Amino acid sequence: MVLNRMMKWKFQDTDLIILNEKYELNLGLKRIKHMTGVKKLVKQIAESLKLDNSEEISEIFKLHDIARNMKAEKQQEFIPHIDIIDIEKNNPVLLHAPIAAYMLRNSDLYTDNSDNLLYAVRYHTLFEHAERETFELKLLTVCDFCEYERKFTEAETLRKVAFENLDKAYEKMKIIRKEYYLKHEKIN
After folding, report:
1. Please, which of 39, 70, 112, 153 could form a disulfide with 62 given CB 3.0 to 4.6 Å?
2. Could you tell me which CATH number the domain at 13-184 has?
3. Domains of the chain, residue spans
């Protein structure tokens, strides 16, 4: 796969078009807006924390949901190449996370320095099942949960907290999410 190499971590819209066609991602405007919103919030928080790699982090995390709209038949092609857990087997919508991590690992965007970033992509939907709660995992899950397109009441509050204390925002997000899933019985 040939990706734009002008900037090592600058993922161009044309690259997304190539991936969309190659992997039949079925990315629509709503999904792209969400992914872009996550990128924007990640970059803002990373820059506020004065991280040296804010560009790299935001570019990789923009792609966290690239496989979210992929058809089930296409997802099945990736199953032999990824490790999945029972909850993902029972809820195929969750497969997009390990598939996205696999796709990114096998793209020109991957470097040895990307391991924690790809780990975050892999577990962003099931962070409760991750062996490690890394900074990168916390950053992605919080930003995915409360990016600017999210309009529920707690989203704005959580964004503000995230700029002040990411760990606190992460813990608060876990509580909100758990309450939501219990109320709506979303995941088996």
Report:
1. 39
2. 1.10.3210.10
3. 13-184
